[in-house]
Design goal:
Blueprint: H1 18-25, H2 35-45, H3 58-63, H4 69-83, H5 87-117, E1 125-130, E2 133-138, E3 147-151, E4 159-171, H6 173-176, E5 182-183, E6 201-202, E7 207-219, H7 225-235, H8 242-271, H9 276-290, H10 295-312, E8 315-317, H11 321-327, E9 331-334, E10 346-352, E11 355-359, E12 370-371, H12 382-393, E13 398-402, E14 405-409, H13 412-423, H14 428-434, E15 437-441, E16 449-456, E17 459-466, H15 468-473, E18 475-480, E19 483-486, H16 489-504, E20 508-516, E21 529-538, H17 543-554, E22 558-562, H18 567-577, E23 585-588, H19 589-594, H20 597-603, E24 607-611, H21 615-627, E25 632-636, H22 642-647, E26 650-654, H23 660-665, E27 668-670, H24 675-715, H25 724-742, H26 766-794, H27 797-818, H28 826-829, H29 835-853, H30 855-861, H31 868-878, H32 880-892
Parallel strand pairs: 9-22, 9-25, 18-21, 22-24, 23-24, 25-26, 26-27
Antiparallel strand pairs: 1-2, 1-3, 3-7, 4-5, 4-6, 4-7, 8-27, 10-11, 10-21, 11-12, 13-14, 15-16, 16-17, 17-20, 18-19, 20-21
Helix pairs in contact: 4-5, 8-9, 8-24, 9-25, 10-24, 11-24, 12-13, 17-24, 24-25, 24-26, 24-27, 25-27, 25-29, 26-27, 26-32, 27-29, 27-31, 27-32, 29-30
Length: about 900
């Protein structure tokens, strides 16, 4: 037998005739390949499996977690702390570093498994015809040219061109996003037919929903459509999160500032002949004080608490840094089916010759009402009852309850008809008892209709449903309040116009009819029908999705729908939800295919709806948004979504309908498949970043105060105002625990009323740095004033250090209350609204006083007992920075527009 042609033209098999496909594949469309030829091709072309890629090096993944500069700054701080005898402080810092590394390690390890998860889609075994005999072979041994035998329930083992299709319907949702099983045929298609419309092919990873067929394998392994997705998935990368990048920037700046100040202090001390050991310890302590070693712990705690809150709001985070990225999101590219919609076909409109009706309630639960034009509940009588009886009677679906949730068995469209009948009290079970089924004429794509014959009141009746144009042509009468009346041309035209109106609303329209048969054995059942009415069906928008889209708009977040469904359906749903507004564009996959990346980059900001798209299209859309500088969240549930999920700044997989491939490629999983949960997660992400930002400002302002105090005292010719051990205690008592408490602050209710932070915005911007410098100056001024006063009064260094030490501690602890908001005054935020912070400040006050009055601790920290008058005076002085910053907030009210995120130094 001649060899098959190379698979370079694999994308055109849908445009090849059966004879041409068999010739190119060098196979017999009836006998299949010879066994020996199949073995030869397997050896030449390789196994039918997806490439797993290089083995993941666990050691390399773990080592990669230490690339961040801030990590090495912290490791240095830990070693210095240990050298100074502060083993507890050093161990704590190292523990934080290791915790962060472990979290990053597991995050990356899990992400690398996304490609491997694609292999789960391969059918373990497949039935093929070889040498004229049917055989069950391992799926990995299927080769191009094999003749596949397909039956209901089978997983498709490879991409194949259909030779036979008997009522064949295939679930392609994991690959194309198509919400309903696709009817297949064997005819020719145009070369430019999109993947979702290639009805004469079946694809690896999809499943046979109904019917049977035979097909010639045209692509295996990495040459299949799923294989192409695997290649895209390998090339996709979300990159660093904004927070990771900005923390590295802060670390670099801190290094230079620390180095400059330490060298300055060291040089001045050297010129003044300060003892070398004291000089060295003081300079190194300053370096430790300048680095906010509590920041990684604060970030970790803030993100971890945010993850817990998100879980309660149906969002499971797979990586901690992604929480912050989600809060920076500027664009949400979302699937339609099941995310913006309920994911279940629902009858929304009914039309009978007596009137039109609107149906409330979504999904497969029989909850809802049939309303008349006046908005009142419509009784199920007359023509409406006849229509609903036909809907339930001409039906093969079944309603069920699984784990307390409504489910179905059978076709979703038929299930929707059962649900609307149940809403009027017409149950399928009762109908089966009253009108037993005699025979069925099943639906097929050629007839475009289905009929069921039942015995009703001792006589035979046929119920018919199908495409309106087909059913109407076979109707000679219409059911009215007066009974069965002849259908004239005007009546027929009226119903055709009604069909067009419902279709314009992106509703799938079915016509229903009935006929009284002269006998149970009547051969030609589907003629001289009595028209009963129309049913308009749709997978309706989730009730909460509309408000969620509106929230996005208020928050400055663009919502973009990307779906494999028909453009008309996508347009209608997008318009109803508020995604598509005047001037916005709808782009179809075929048009996108013809566009270059540069053209897409120029146009992407104008397009709000994409329809009939493929996996590669989704990846290109995400890359175009990122190319415009946007932080992009991408939602998806199918295999075709995985590359875009990996490429997006934040990938969001669906928990209910999502494939394992999509979940492994994502950063977040939505457990209820609801767009509103994504918006709730964005809200949490913004709140977390707010907490991280204000905590960073609090930490850096405290460190700035310490540095300024030592620097000013050194320039003024004084000895070091604080001992190294005192600097370390200040960092532990005023930075660590209060900062962690700030990270647990409640989210501002107005967090979604401002635009998202720009991805290029600096974490330490001018506003934040100005606040840090101001706060540091105030704190240093108060502490230096107390220090200089005590030096002038007593002429001794010990009482001066005593005063400066406690005043600085009290100032920073009190300042924590003001650091909770950039704009709200202390009484507006509430002193007790963060009980953790209040308790930590109270305990820290007590520990500071204990240091003064404990003989053992006094010897360690170089402190002396203080009087009540001294204590109250130092607390009052320590309150000055807090009061000054509160006055600044009050003065700035109404004078400036608030920044996009709470960045402050107080």
């Amino acid at each position: 037998m001649q060899r098959a042609e190379e698979p370079a033209m694999a994308e055109e098999w849908h445009a090849a005739s059966i004879e041409e496909a068999a010739r190119r594949l060098a196979t017999d469309p009836r006998q299949g390949l010879a066994v020996a030829e199949a073995a030869s091709r397997l050896a030449a072309e390789g196994a039918n499996e997806l490439r797993r890629g290089a083995e993941i090096s666990l050691l390399a993944l773990f080592a990669g977690q230490f690339r961040s500069l801030v990590i090495w700054v912290l490791i240095g701080a830990a070693l210095v702390s240990a050298a100074l005898g502060e083993l507890v402080d050093g161990v704590a810092i190292l523990a934080i570093v290791i915790l962060n590394a472990a979290i990053g390690f597991f995050q990356e390890f899990r992400a690398e498994r996304a490609v491997a998860a694609l292999s789960l889609l391969a059918a373990p075994r497949a039935r093929v015809v070889r040498g004229g005999a049917s055989a069950l072979v391992p799926a990995r041994e299927v080769v191009r040219g094999d003749l596949l035998v397909l039956d209901a329930g089978d997983l498709v083992a490879a991409d194949a061109r259909l030779l036979e299709a008997s009522e064949l319907r295939v679930d392609e949702a994991p690959l194309t996003g198509e919400s309903e099983p696709v009817e297949k045929h064997t005819g020719l298609l145009q070369v430019d037919t999109p993947l979702a419309d290639r009805r004469n092919q079946v694809f690896l990873g999809t499943s046979i929903a109904a019917g049977s067929g035979r097909a010639l394998v045209v692509a295996t392994g990495m040459q299949t459509e799923v294989g192409q997705i695997a290649r895209l998935l390998e090339s996709a990368s979300s990159g660093e999160t904004p927070l990771q990048r900005q923390l590295d920037q802060v670390a670099r700046r801190l290094l230079w500032v620390c180095l400059a100040i330490v060298l300055l202090v060291f040089g001045l001390g050297w010129l003044r002949e300060t003892p070398p050991l004291e000089l060295f310890l003081g300079a190194v302590s300053l370096a430790v004080a300048a680095v906010p070693e509590g920041l990684p712990a604060v970030v970790t705690v803030a993100l971890a608490l945010g993850v817990q809150r998100m879980a309660r709001r149906h969002a499971l985070m797979r990586s901690l840094p992604s929480v912050e990225t989600l809060g920076s999101t500027q664009v949400i590219c979302t699937d339609k089916t099941g995310t913006l919609t309920v994911g279940a076909m629902t009858v929304r409109r009914l039309l009978t010759p007596e009137g039109e009706y609107r149906v409330t309630g979504e999904g497969y639960a029989p909850d809802g009402t049939i309303l008349s034009d006046s908005g009142e509940p419509a009784p199920a009588t007359g023509a409406l009852r006849e229509l609903l009886r036909a809907a339930a009677g001409c039906n093969d679906a079944e309603l069920s309850v699984r784990e307390g949730k409504p489910g179905i068995a059978g076709d979703p469209t038929e299930a929707a008809l059962l649900v609307v009948a149940a809403k009027a009290g017409l149950r399928r079970e009762a109908l089966e008892d009253e009108e037993p089924r005699l025979r069925t004429l099943p639906f097929d794509s050629d007839r475009k209709r289905m009929s069921v014959v039942r015995r009703r009141d001792g006589e035979a009746w046929a119920y018919v449903k199908g495409a309106p144009e087909v059913v109407l042509e076979r109707c000679t009468h219409v059911r009215t309040a007066l009974g069965s009346e002849p259908m004239d041309d005007a009546t027929r035209a009226r119903f055709r116009s009604a069909v067009a109106g419902l279709a314009a609303e992106a509703l799938r329209v079915l016509a229903l009819a009935e006929r009284h048969l002269p006998s149970e054995g009547e051969a030609d059942v589907e003629r001289d029908l009595v028209f009963l009415g129309l049913a308009g069906l749709q997978d309706p928008p989730r009730p909460e999705a509309r408000e969620a889209v509106a929230k996005c708009r208020r928050a400055g977040i663009l919502s973009v729908m990307i779906t494999g469904d028909h453009p008309a359906t996508a347009r209608a749903i997008a318009a109803e939800l508020g995604i598509l507004a005047a001037g916005d564009e709808v782009l179809v996959g075929a048009e996108l295919e013809r566009m270059s990346d540069a053209e897409l980059l120029e146009r992407v900001e104008r397009v709000r709806v994409y329809a009939r798209v493929t996996a590669e299209h989704k990846l290109r859309i995400v890359r175009a948004w990122k190319g415009r500088g946007f932080v992009v969240a991408m939602t998806g549930d199918g295999v075709n979504d995985a590359p875009a999920l990996r490429e997006a700044s934040i990938g969001v997989a669906m928990g209910i309908t999502g494939t394992e491939v999509a979940k492994e490629a994502s950063d977040m999983v939505i457990t209820d498949d609801d767009f509103a949960s994504i918006v709730a997660a964005v809200e949490e992400g913004r709140g977390i970043f707010d907490n991280v930002t204000k905590t960073l400002a609090y930490l850096l302002a405290g460190n700035a105060g310490e540095l300024m105090l030592v620097l000013v005292a050194t320039l003024a010719g004084y000895p070091l105002p604080l001992l190294p051990i005192q600097l370390l205690w200040i960092n532990l008592a005023t930075d660590g625990l209060p900062a962690l408490a700030l990270a647990t602050d409640a989210i501002d209710p107005a967090v979604l009323d401002r635009p998202p932070r720009r991805p290029d915005a600096q974490l330490a911007d001018r506003g934040l740095l100005a606040g840090i410098v101001l706060t540091g100056c105030l704190t240093a001024a108060v502490a230096f004033g107390v220090f200089a006063y005590e030096m002038a009064s007593h002429g001794e260094i010990a009482p001066a250090r005593n005063a400066a030490f406690s005043t600085l501690v009290f100032a920073e602890l009190l300042r924590a209350f003001g650091a909770r908001s950039e704009t709200k005054l202390l009484h507006e935020v509430g002193l007790f609204s963060n009980l953790r912070l209040f308790a930590i400040v109270a305990v820290s006050f007590g520990l500071q006083l204990w240091i003064h009055h404990s003989i053992a601790l006094g010897a360690v920290f170089g402190t002396r007992p203080i009087s009540l008058r001294q204590c109250l005076a130092w607390i009052a002085l320590g309150a000055i920075p807090l009061l000054a910053l509160e006055v600044r907030k009050w003065a700035r009210r109404g004078a400036a527009v608030p920044r996009q995120s709470p960045q402050n130094g107080g």
